[in-house]
Design goal:
By secondary structure, the protein is α+β, with helices and mostly antiparallel strands. The protein has one domain (21-60, 92-264, 306-420): Outer membrane efflux proteins (OEP) (Up-down Bundle). The protein contains 9 helices and 6 strands, in the order αβααββααβααββαα. Strands 2-3-5-6 form a 4-stranded antiparallel β-sheet, with no helix packed on it. A two-stranded parallel sheet has the order 1-4. It is elongated, with a radius of gyration of 42 Å. It starts with a helix and ends in a 5-residue tail after the last helix.
Amino acid sequence: MKKALIWIVVFLGWIPAPAFAESTLTLPQAFELARKNNIAFQAVQREAESVEGDLIQAGLIPNPTLELEQKSTPFPGFQEGERGLFLSQELELGGKRSARVSVAQKALEAAQFKVAEIARQLRQKVRVSFYEAWVAQERMKVLEEISASQKLFLDLSKARVKLGDIPGVEVKLVSAEYLRIQQKLEGARKDVQTALADLAQLLALPLDEKPALQAPDKGPADFPDLSGLLSQAFQNRPDLRAQEMNVQKALAQVRLEKALAIPNLTVGAGTVLDKLLIHGEDVSPPGAISEINDSDRLYQIRFSFPLPLFDRNQGNILKSERLYESEILKEQDLRRAIQTEVMTAWQKVAANLKIQERFQKELLPVVKENLHIIEKAYRLGGQSVLAVIQAERTLFETQLDYLDNLRQLEGSIALLESAAGIELP
Protein backbone atom coordinates (compact mmCIF):
# COMPACT_ATOMS: atom_id res chain seq x y z
CA MET A 1 0.00 0.00 0.00
CA LYS A 2 2.80 2.39 0.85
CA LYS A 3 4.47 1.62 -2.48
CA ALA A 4 1.25 2.50 -4.23
CA LEU A 5 1.10 5.79 -2.34
CA ILE A 6 4.68 6.56 -3.28
CA TRP A 7 3.85 5.81 -6.93
CA ILE A 8 0.96 8.27 -6.76
CA VAL A 9 3.12 10.98 -5.27
CA VAL A 10 5.80 10.51 -7.95
CA PHE A 11 3.25 11.27 -10.63
CA LEU A 12 1.58 14.05 -8.68
CA GLY A 13 0.79 16.97 -10.99
CA TRP A 14 1.02 14.98 -14.23
CA ILE A 15 -1.91 14.83 -16.65
CA PRO A 16 -2.08 14.31 -20.42
CA ALA A 17 -2.68 17.38 -22.59
CA PRO A 18 -6.42 17.69 -23.23
CA ALA A 19 -7.70 17.27 -26.76
CA PHE A 20 -9.63 20.49 -27.34
CA ALA A 21 -10.52 20.40 -31.01
CA GLU A 22 -9.48 18.75 -34.24
CA SER A 23 -8.69 21.97 -36.13
CA THR A 24 -5.81 24.29 -35.29
CA LEU A 25 -5.68 28.01 -36.04
CA THR A 26 -2.48 30.08 -36.10
CA LEU A 27 -2.24 33.85 -35.87
CA PRO A 28 -1.21 34.35 -39.55
CA GLN A 29 -4.17 32.20 -40.58
CA ALA A 30 -6.44 34.36 -38.45
CA PHE A 31 -5.16 37.51 -40.15
CA GLU A 32 -5.79 35.99 -43.58
CA LEU A 33 -9.29 34.81 -42.67
CA ALA A 34 -10.20 38.24 -41.34
CA ARG A 35 -9.13 40.00 -44.55
CA LYS A 36 -10.92 37.40 -46.63
CA ASN A 37 -14.16 36.98 -44.70
CA ASN A 38 -14.78 40.14 -42.68
CA ILE A 39 -17.82 41.80 -44.25
CA ALA A 40 -17.09 45.29 -42.92
CA PHE A 41 -13.63 45.18 -44.49
CA GLN A 42 -15.06 44.01 -47.80
CA ALA A 43 -17.59 46.86 -47.74
CA VAL A 44 -14.79 49.43 -47.34
CA GLN A 45 -12.92 47.83 -50.24
CA ARG A 46 -15.97 48.16 -52.49
CA GLU A 47 -16.44 51.75 -51.39
CA ALA A 48 -12.85 52.56 -52.35
CA GLU A 49 -13.28 50.88 -55.72
CA SER A 50 -16.34 53.04 -56.39
CA VAL A 51 -14.17 56.17 -56.23
CA GLU A 52 -12.53 55.04 -59.48
CA GLY A 53 -15.78 56.08 -61.15
CA ASP A 54 -15.25 59.65 -59.94
CA LEU A 55 -11.80 59.66 -61.55
CA ILE A 56 -13.21 58.45 -64.86
CA GLN A 57 -16.00 61.00 -64.74
CA ALA A 58 -13.61 63.84 -63.88
CA GLY A 59 -11.62 63.27 -67.07
CA LEU A 60 -14.57 63.54 -69.43
CA ILE A 61 -15.18 66.63 -71.55
CA PRO A 62 -18.64 68.19 -72.11
CA ASN A 63 -20.76 66.66 -74.84
CA PRO A 64 -21.38 68.70 -78.02
CA THR A 65 -24.85 70.16 -78.59
CA LEU A 66 -26.80 69.62 -81.80
CA GLU A 67 -29.68 72.02 -82.59
CA LEU A 68 -32.26 71.72 -85.37
CA GLU A 69 -34.51 74.71 -86.09
CA GLN A 70 -37.54 74.94 -88.38
CA LYS A 71 -39.56 78.15 -89.00
CA SER A 72 -42.50 78.70 -91.35
CA THR A 73 -44.53 81.92 -91.95
CA PRO A 74 -47.48 81.33 -94.33
CA PHE A 75 -49.41 84.34 -95.75
CA PRO A 76 -51.95 84.55 -98.60
CA GLY A 77 -49.98 84.43 -101.80
CA PHE A 78 -46.57 83.65 -100.37
CA GLN A 79 -44.76 81.46 -97.88
CA GLU A 80 -41.48 82.05 -96.04
CA GLY A 81 -39.56 79.41 -94.08
CA GLU A 82 -36.22 78.81 -92.39
CA ARG A 83 -34.46 75.58 -91.58
CA GLY A 84 -31.31 75.62 -89.50
CA LEU A 85 -28.77 73.11 -88.21
CA PHE A 86 -26.26 74.11 -85.50
CA LEU A 87 -23.48 72.25 -83.68
CA SER A 88 -21.86 73.76 -80.59
CA GLN A 89 -19.14 72.67 -78.20
CA GLU A 90 -18.37 74.02 -74.74
CA LEU A 91 -14.63 74.52 -74.22
CA GLU A 92 -13.45 74.41 -70.61
CA LEU A 93 -10.93 77.13 -69.86
CA GLY A 94 -8.59 77.68 -66.94
CA GLY A 95 -7.52 74.03 -66.55
CA LYS A 96 -10.84 72.85 -65.10
CA ARG A 97 -10.52 69.32 -66.44
CA SER A 98 -6.99 68.75 -65.11
CA ALA A 99 -8.04 70.26 -61.75
CA ARG A 100 -11.03 67.89 -61.55
CA VAL A 101 -8.81 64.93 -62.36
CA SER A 102 -6.34 65.98 -59.66
CA VAL A 103 -9.12 66.18 -57.05
CA ALA A 104 -10.48 62.77 -58.06
CA GLN A 105 -7.00 61.21 -58.10
CA LYS A 106 -6.25 62.39 -54.57
CA ALA A 107 -9.67 61.18 -53.43
CA LEU A 108 -8.94 57.74 -54.89
CA GLU A 109 -5.56 57.54 -53.16
CA ALA A 110 -7.14 58.64 -49.88
CA ALA A 111 -9.80 55.93 -50.27
CA GLN A 112 -7.12 53.29 -50.87
CA PHE A 113 -5.27 54.37 -47.74
CA LYS A 114 -8.59 54.21 -45.89
CA VAL A 115 -8.82 50.53 -46.84
CA ALA A 116 -5.31 50.03 -45.48
CA GLU A 117 -6.35 51.85 -42.30
CA ILE A 118 -9.33 49.54 -41.80
CA ALA A 119 -6.99 46.60 -42.37
CA ARG A 120 -4.65 48.01 -39.69
CA GLN A 121 -7.50 48.31 -37.21
CA LEU A 122 -8.79 44.85 -38.13
CA ARG A 123 -5.33 43.33 -37.61
CA GLN A 124 -5.15 44.85 -34.13
CA LYS A 125 -8.60 43.50 -33.24
CA VAL A 126 -7.72 40.04 -34.56
CA ARG A 127 -4.45 39.92 -32.64
CA VAL A 128 -6.07 41.01 -29.39
CA SER A 129 -9.01 38.62 -29.83
CA PHE A 130 -6.71 35.74 -30.82
CA TYR A 131 -4.55 36.08 -27.71
CA GLU A 132 -7.59 36.63 -25.50
CA ALA A 133 -8.89 33.27 -26.68
CA TRP A 134 -5.47 31.62 -26.56
CA VAL A 135 -4.82 32.77 -22.99
CA ALA A 136 -8.32 31.59 -22.05
CA GLN A 137 -7.45 28.16 -23.42
CA GLU A 138 -4.14 28.14 -21.55
CA ARG A 139 -5.89 29.14 -18.33
CA MET A 140 -8.29 26.27 -18.80
CA LYS A 141 -5.38 23.87 -19.36
CA VAL A 142 -3.65 25.10 -16.20
CA LEU A 143 -6.85 24.65 -14.22
CA GLU A 144 -7.32 21.16 -15.68
CA GLU A 145 -3.79 20.26 -14.61
CA ILE A 146 -4.36 21.69 -11.15
CA SER A 147 -7.70 19.90 -10.92
CA ALA A 148 -6.06 16.59 -11.81
CA SER A 149 -3.27 17.26 -9.33
CA GLN A 150 -5.80 18.08 -6.62
CA LYS A 151 -7.70 14.89 -7.42
CA LEU A 152 -4.53 12.84 -6.98
CA PHE A 153 -3.72 14.71 -3.79
CA LEU A 154 -7.26 14.07 -2.53
CA ASP A 155 -6.93 10.35 -3.27
CA LEU A 156 -3.56 10.33 -1.52
CA SER A 157 -5.03 12.05 1.54
CA LYS A 158 -7.88 9.55 1.71
CA ALA A 159 -5.38 6.70 1.55
CA ARG A 160 -3.28 8.24 4.32
CA VAL A 161 -6.37 8.64 6.49
CA LYS A 162 -7.04 4.94 6.12
CA LEU A 163 -3.46 4.27 7.18
CA GLY A 164 -3.91 6.57 10.16
CA ASP A 165 -1.14 8.93 9.02
CA ILE A 166 -3.33 12.05 9.03
CA PRO A 167 -6.64 13.06 10.63
CA GLY A 168 -9.88 13.02 8.61
CA VAL A 169 -10.25 16.80 8.82
CA GLU A 170 -7.34 17.18 6.42
CA VAL A 171 -9.27 15.23 3.79
CA LYS A 172 -12.12 17.70 4.14
CA LEU A 173 -9.71 20.59 3.60
CA VAL A 174 -8.28 18.97 0.48
CA SER A 175 -11.80 18.15 -0.76
CA ALA A 176 -12.92 21.77 -0.28
CA GLU A 177 -9.89 22.99 -2.24
CA TYR A 178 -10.64 20.49 -5.01
CA LEU A 179 -14.24 21.73 -5.30
CA ARG A 180 -13.01 25.33 -5.42
CA ILE A 181 -10.71 24.46 -8.32
CA GLN A 182 -13.57 22.66 -10.09
CA GLN A 183 -15.70 25.81 -9.92
CA LYS A 184 -12.87 27.89 -11.36
CA LEU A 185 -12.41 25.29 -14.09
CA GLU A 186 -16.06 25.55 -15.10
CA GLY A 187 -15.75 29.32 -15.28
CA ALA A 188 -12.59 29.00 -17.38
CA ARG A 189 -14.38 26.70 -19.84
CA LYS A 190 -17.14 29.27 -20.27
CA ASP A 191 -14.52 31.98 -20.81
CA VAL A 192 -12.96 29.89 -23.57
CA GLN A 193 -16.30 29.47 -25.32
CA THR A 194 -17.00 33.20 -25.12
CA ALA A 195 -13.53 34.19 -26.37
CA LEU A 196 -13.66 31.71 -29.25
CA ALA A 197 -17.12 32.95 -30.22
CA ASP A 198 -15.84 36.54 -30.31
CA LEU A 199 -12.90 35.47 -32.47
CA ALA A 200 -15.14 33.43 -34.77
CA GLN A 201 -17.41 36.43 -35.29
CA LEU A 202 -14.43 38.62 -36.15
CA LEU A 203 -13.14 36.04 -38.64
CA ALA A 204 -16.63 35.28 -39.99
CA LEU A 205 -16.29 31.63 -39.00
CA PRO A 206 -19.25 29.42 -38.09
CA LEU A 207 -20.08 30.03 -34.45
CA ASP A 208 -19.99 26.29 -33.73
CA GLU A 209 -16.40 26.04 -34.98
CA LYS A 210 -14.07 26.03 -31.99
CA PRO A 211 -10.49 25.69 -33.23
CA ALA A 212 -7.52 25.10 -30.99
CA LEU A 213 -5.31 28.17 -31.16
CA GLN A 214 -1.61 27.79 -31.75
CA ALA A 215 0.43 30.76 -30.60
CA PRO A 216 3.58 31.48 -32.61
CA ASP A 217 6.91 30.42 -31.17
CA LYS A 218 8.72 33.57 -30.15
CA GLY A 219 12.37 34.10 -29.51
CA PRO A 220 13.79 36.91 -27.41
CA ALA A 221 11.86 40.13 -27.89
CA ASP A 222 13.68 42.45 -30.27
CA PHE A 223 11.69 45.62 -30.90
CA PRO A 224 12.96 48.71 -32.71
CA ASP A 225 13.91 51.62 -30.52
CA LEU A 226 11.39 54.36 -29.86
CA SER A 227 12.81 56.82 -32.38
CA GLY A 228 12.80 54.13 -35.05
CA LEU A 229 9.19 53.25 -34.27
CA LEU A 230 8.15 56.90 -34.49
CA SER A 231 9.89 57.24 -37.84
CA GLN A 232 8.15 54.13 -39.16
CA ALA A 233 4.81 55.32 -37.84
CA PHE A 234 5.07 58.63 -39.70
CA GLN A 235 6.02 56.72 -42.85
CA ASN A 236 3.65 53.76 -42.66
CA ARG A 237 0.49 54.74 -40.80
CA PRO A 238 -2.27 54.51 -43.43
CA ASP A 239 -4.52 56.96 -41.60
CA LEU A 240 -1.74 59.56 -41.73
CA ARG A 241 -1.13 58.84 -45.40
CA ALA A 242 -4.87 59.16 -46.03
CA GLN A 243 -4.91 62.49 -44.22
CA GLU A 244 -1.94 63.66 -46.30
CA MET A 245 -3.97 62.80 -49.39
CA ASN A 246 -6.91 64.74 -47.93
CA VAL A 247 -4.64 67.78 -47.62
CA GLN A 248 -3.53 67.43 -51.23
CA LYS A 249 -7.11 66.87 -52.31
CA ALA A 250 -8.21 70.04 -50.49
CA LEU A 251 -5.43 72.00 -52.22
CA ALA A 252 -6.51 70.58 -55.57
CA GLN A 253 -10.08 71.61 -54.73
CA VAL A 254 -8.90 75.20 -54.15
CA ARG A 255 -7.30 75.18 -57.60
CA LEU A 256 -10.46 73.75 -59.10
CA GLU A 257 -12.67 76.41 -57.53
CA LYS A 258 -10.36 79.13 -58.85
CA ALA A 259 -10.50 77.53 -62.29
CA LEU A 260 -14.29 77.47 -62.10
CA ALA A 261 -14.21 81.27 -61.73
CA ILE A 262 -13.08 81.45 -65.37
CA PRO A 263 -16.13 81.15 -67.68
CA ASN A 264 -16.18 78.54 -70.38
CA LEU A 265 -16.22 79.42 -74.07
CA THR A 266 -18.91 77.91 -76.25
CA VAL A 267 -18.11 77.66 -79.96
CA GLY A 268 -20.78 76.82 -82.52
CA ALA A 269 -21.23 76.56 -86.26
CA GLY A 270 -24.28 76.00 -88.39
CA THR A 271 -26.18 76.65 -91.56
CA VAL A 272 -29.60 78.20 -92.24
CA LEU A 273 -31.68 77.68 -95.37
CA ASP A 274 -34.05 80.65 -96.01
CA LYS A 275 -36.74 79.90 -98.58
CA LEU A 276 -39.33 82.30 -100.10
CA LEU A 277 -42.24 81.14 -102.30
CA ILE A 278 -44.73 83.58 -103.99
CA HIS A 279 -47.59 82.47 -106.24
CA GLY A 280 -48.33 85.07 -108.99
CA GLU A 281 -52.03 84.24 -109.34
CA ASP A 282 -52.54 84.88 -105.66
CA VAL A 283 -51.14 88.41 -105.84
CA SER A 284 -53.51 91.35 -106.32
CA PRO A 285 -53.92 92.36 -109.01
CA PRO A 286 -53.46 88.88 -110.44
CA GLY A 287 -50.49 88.55 -112.74
CA ALA A 288 -48.75 91.66 -111.41
CA ILE A 289 -45.70 89.53 -110.70
CA SER A 290 -44.67 86.14 -111.79
CA GLU A 291 -44.15 83.26 -109.43
CA ILE A 292 -41.07 83.57 -107.21
CA ASN A 293 -39.28 80.60 -105.70
CA ASP A 294 -36.07 81.78 -104.03
CA SER A 295 -33.82 80.25 -101.39
CA ASP A 296 -30.65 81.41 -99.66
CA ARG A 297 -28.22 79.38 -97.55
CA LEU A 298 -26.46 81.16 -94.73
CA TYR A 299 -23.51 79.91 -92.67
CA GLN A 300 -23.02 81.00 -89.09
CA ILE A 301 -20.29 80.83 -86.47
CA ARG A 302 -21.20 81.53 -82.87
CA PHE A 303 -19.12 82.35 -79.82
CA SER A 304 -20.60 82.49 -76.32
CA PHE A 305 -18.65 83.70 -73.29
CA PRO A 306 -20.35 84.70 -70.00
CA LEU A 307 -18.99 87.92 -68.54
CA PRO A 308 -17.73 87.36 -64.98
CA LEU A 309 -19.00 90.66 -63.66
CA PHE A 310 -20.79 89.49 -60.52
CA ASP A 311 -20.35 85.76 -59.92
CA ARG A 312 -16.67 84.87 -59.88
CA ASN A 313 -17.11 81.85 -57.57
CA GLN A 314 -15.86 83.90 -54.62
CA GLY A 315 -17.84 81.98 -51.99
CA ASN A 316 -16.70 78.53 -53.08
CA ILE A 317 -13.08 79.70 -53.32
CA LEU A 318 -13.19 81.00 -49.76
CA LYS A 319 -14.84 77.81 -48.54
CA SER A 320 -12.24 75.59 -50.22
CA GLU A 321 -9.37 77.64 -48.78
CA ARG A 322 -10.73 77.29 -45.24
CA LEU A 323 -11.26 73.56 -45.72
CA TYR A 324 -7.67 73.26 -46.93
CA GLU A 325 -6.45 74.98 -43.77
CA SER A 326 -8.67 72.67 -41.71
CA GLU A 327 -7.16 69.55 -43.32
CA ILE A 328 -3.65 70.83 -42.54
CA LEU A 329 -4.60 71.26 -38.88
CA LYS A 330 -6.11 67.76 -38.82
CA GLU A 331 -2.86 66.33 -40.14
CA GLN A 332 -0.85 68.15 -37.48
CA ASP A 333 -3.21 66.90 -34.76
CA LEU A 334 -3.00 63.34 -36.09
CA ARG A 335 0.80 63.44 -36.05
CA ARG A 336 0.77 64.45 -32.39
CA ALA A 337 -1.76 61.72 -31.60
CA ILE A 338 0.36 59.11 -33.38
CA GLN A 339 3.43 60.17 -31.43
CA THR A 340 1.51 59.80 -28.17
CA GLU A 341 0.10 56.41 -29.21
CA VAL A 342 3.52 55.02 -30.11
CA MET A 343 5.17 56.29 -26.92
CA THR A 344 2.35 54.97 -24.71
CA ALA A 345 2.31 51.57 -26.41
CA TRP A 346 6.10 51.32 -26.22
CA GLN A 347 6.06 52.02 -22.49
CA LYS A 348 3.36 49.38 -21.95
CA VAL A 349 5.31 46.78 -23.92
CA ALA A 350 8.52 47.56 -22.03
CA ALA A 351 6.76 47.32 -18.66
CA ASN A 352 5.02 44.04 -19.52
CA LEU A 353 8.26 42.55 -20.86
CA LYS A 354 9.96 43.27 -17.54
CA ILE A 355 7.10 41.62 -15.67
CA GLN A 356 7.27 38.58 -17.98
CA GLU A 357 11.00 38.28 -17.39
CA ARG A 358 10.45 38.42 -13.65
CA PHE A 359 7.80 35.71 -13.84
CA GLN A 360 10.00 33.43 -15.96
CA LYS A 361 13.28 33.91 -14.10
CA GLU A 362 12.16 34.53 -10.54
CA LEU A 363 8.55 33.95 -9.53
CA LEU A 364 7.62 30.72 -11.31
CA PRO A 365 10.86 28.85 -10.47
CA VAL A 366 10.64 29.93 -6.82
CA VAL A 367 7.01 28.90 -6.26
CA LYS A 368 7.55 25.59 -8.09
CA GLU A 369 10.58 24.82 -5.96
CA ASN A 370 8.69 25.87 -2.84
CA LEU A 371 5.83 23.51 -3.67
CA HIS A 372 8.28 20.67 -4.32
CA ILE A 373 9.96 21.20 -0.93
CA ILE A 374 6.66 21.41 0.98
CA GLU A 375 5.27 18.30 -0.75
CA LYS A 376 8.42 16.41 0.14
CA ALA A 377 8.20 17.58 3.75
CA TYR A 378 4.50 16.65 3.83
CA ARG A 379 5.27 13.11 2.70
CA LEU A 380 7.80 12.88 5.51
CA GLY A 381 5.34 14.30 8.02
CA GLY A 382 7.12 17.60 8.40
CA GLN A 383 4.35 19.82 6.95
CA SER A 384 0.59 19.98 7.32
CA VAL A 385 -1.90 19.63 4.51
CA LEU A 386 -2.69 23.34 4.86
CA ALA A 387 0.88 24.17 3.91
CA VAL A 388 0.59 21.99 0.80
CA ILE A 389 -2.74 23.58 -0.15
CA GLN A 390 -1.32 27.06 0.32
CA ALA A 391 1.78 26.24 -1.75
CA GLU A 392 -0.33 24.76 -4.55
CA ARG A 393 -2.65 27.75 -4.45
CA THR A 394 0.34 30.10 -4.68
CA LEU A 395 1.67 28.22 -7.71
CA PHE A 396 -1.78 28.16 -9.28
CA GLU A 397 -2.32 31.89 -8.78
CA THR A 398 1.19 32.69 -10.00
CA GLN A 399 0.62 30.68 -13.18
CA LEU A 400 -2.67 32.47 -13.81
CA ASP A 401 -1.07 35.84 -13.10
CA TYR A 402 1.65 34.94 -15.57
CA LEU A 403 -0.95 34.17 -18.24
CA ASP A 404 -2.84 37.35 -17.43
CA ASN A 405 0.34 39.37 -17.87
CA LEU A 406 1.03 37.50 -21.11
CA ARG A 407 -2.41 38.58 -22.32
CA GLN A 408 -1.61 42.17 -21.38
CA LEU A 409 1.76 41.91 -23.11
CA GLU A 410 0.20 40.69 -26.34
CA GLY A 411 -2.42 43.41 -26.12
CA SER A 412 0.28 46.05 -25.74
CA ILE A 413 2.25 44.52 -28.64
CA ALA A 414 -0.89 44.68 -30.78
CA LEU A 415 -1.30 48.30 -29.75
CA LEU A 416 2.34 49.09 -30.57
CA GLU A 417 2.13 47.27 -33.88
CA SER A 418 -0.98 49.21 -34.82
CA ALA A 419 0.38 52.53 -33.55
CA ALA A 420 3.59 52.19 -35.56
CA GLY A 421 1.88 50.78 -38.64
CA ILE A 422 4.22 47.78 -38.78
CA GLU A 423 4.03 44.01 -38.27
CA LEU A 424 5.63 42.64 -35.12
CA PRO A 425 6.30 39.00 -34.19
